[in-house]
Amino acid sequence: MNFNSIFITGIIGAVIVDGLTYLCLQLGIATSTPWEIASSIFLNPPLIYTPSGIIIGFIGTIALSIATSLLISCILSATGFEYAWLKGIIAANALGFINLGLFMRLLNIWPQIRNEPATNFVALFCLSVLGIIQAILLKKWSKITV
After folding, report:
1. Is the pLDDT of residue 77 over 70?
2. What stretches pass through the bilayer (predicted)?
3. Out of 45, 54, 120, 138, which residue is the most buried by the measure of CB atoms under 10 Å away?
């Protein structure tokens, strides 16, 4: 697989995760958003909700989605494309929960997430959809030769 397909799949994935999270918010599900959490890595709390903070948050979600796409690509290249959708779910959730459960806790990023079960369920749902779509796109684009 080439880097362009990984990069584009990562951007598509970020749009999907952020879009699904926004949809959950509109449906009344009280959840922290990926862009808030990502911007909190770089900014003090009052700046998270500013236009600059939101843009930084979106850039952070794009970077994490590209990393997820790269991980899925490596797994598919190493193990083959059978059950790509399932491998995508496993890889996206593994990386997501390593971030949520390990790195965020160690670095004290968005500590209130441990008191927000809805956020964790939304993350599980969004990461599963992300993994499926990224794996399917990577599988499809791996067959295209340039």
Report:
1. yes
2. 7-29, 49-72, 84-106, 118-138
3. 138
Query: For residue 30, is it left (φ>0), alpha (ψ between -120 and 50) or beta?
Result: beta
Q: Are 70 and 7 in contact (CB under 8 A)?
A: no
Ramachandran region of residue 33, left (φ > 0), alpha (ψ -120 to 50) or beta? beta
Task: Decide: 120 and 58 in contact? Cβ < 8 Å.
Answer: no
Residue recorded with tokens 């990386």: 95
Place of tokens 């598509």: 12
Whole-prediction pTM value?
Answer: 0.92
Alpha-carbon distances of 9 from 48, 68, 103, 109, 123, rounded to whole Å: 26, 9, 24, 26, 19
